[in-house]
Design goal:
about 35% helix, about 20% strand, 7-stranded mixed beta sheet, two-stranded antiparallel sheet, 12 helices, 9 strands, about 290 residues
Length: about 290
């Protein structure tokens, strides 16, 4: 987490309009860093370094890629969210366009990073070397249908990796180990107020024990270990917490069923048990990762 992210979080305004650009910035400046312990734990276990050629599926605004690049890895990120991808580009490729800088470029990220929008993954580096690590850091198993697009994406990515490459899938831990699950239940309850009631992609649901294994099986991957990581969600104040949580997309169905102001109000109320005396919000959570081989 950089000092810039901390300062921007402290200045967050919960009343700001929720356009696509604002939500992407809320994700990058407030919410994305909550998963940093997960990134570090996975990279430690995978010994990510200069020999790593990593493909990040659903790379978001690029924090996980930035952490890997800082370890010397060559990274490629793919995402369909243009606003988040633009922020990733600003982080990884400052003062440049894509990753087409010459090999002698003085900026190391230009030699190690590539970002792709709505396109098929491509080999990293001018030599066309295949990937040896594929990561999915967007948590699986907390929203209806959240793995439907991932399985074909994994099937398309695997042929671009070396034989026996590692694939890491991540998801929420058991609901009873995640304080944020109680807040996310607000999303499901408000979504159910729609008339007629409906279940739609992206609607929050409790995590199931075998969510990651199910995705691995459907993608033709062989599980080869797993782990759990503590990822507490900490916010400067309730307003920052509301903006961060809504930036995940897990409350979109609730907003459509009611309205954003109603969702913000009820999320703020649900956060009350996790507010500390100094006004900060702290919610212990456990996330899980599954190591697979191709």
């Amino acid at each position: 987490m950089t000092p810039t992210l901390v300062r921007n979080q402290l200045g967050a305004d919960a009343s700001a309009p929720a356009d696509a650009g604002t939500r992407a910035r809320d994700w990058a400046e407030i919410q994305e860093r909550m998963l940093a312990p997960l990134y570090e734990a996975v990279y430690d276990r995978m010994e990510v370094g200069a020999a790593t050629r990593m493909l990040s599926l659903g790379c978001g605004s690029g924090l996980a890629m930035l952490v890997a690049a800082a370890r010397g890895a060559h990274v490629t990120g793919v995402d369909s969210d243009r606003e988040r991808l633009a922020l990733a580009r600003a982080r990884l490729l400052p003062d440049a366009g894509w990753d087409d800088a010459p090999a002698h470029s003085p900026h190391p990220a230009r030699r190690r990073a590539r970002l792709l929008e709505d396109g098929g993954p491509a080999p990293v580096g001018a030599d066309g070397a295949p990937y040896n690590l594929i990561t999915v850091f967007e948590p699986i198993g907390c929203a209806a249908g959240d793995s439907e697009g991932l399985v074909p994406a994994l099937r398309s990515a695997v042929p671009l990796a070396v034989r026996g490459a590692t694939v890491v899938l991540t998801g929420w831990g058991p609901p009873e180990r995640c304080a944020t699950a109680a807040v996310l239940q607000v999303a499901a309850r408000l979504a159910d107020t729609a008339r007629p009631p409906r279940t739609e992609p992206g609607r929050w649901r409790p995590t199931l024990r075998d969510d990651l294994e199910d995705v691995a099986a459907r993608a033709g991957l062989k599980p080869d270990g797993s782990g759990r990581v503590s990822c507490p969600f900490g916010y400067a104040d309730v307003g920052s917490a509301v903006r961060g949580l809504l930036s995940t997309g897990l409350f979109d169905a609730a907003v459509r069923a009611t309205d954003r102001s109603q969702v913000e109000k009820e999320v703020a109320e649900a956060l009350h048990p996790y507010r500390r005396e100094d006004g900060t919000v702290w919610m212990p959570n456990v996330f899980r990762y599954l190591v697979c081989v191709t």
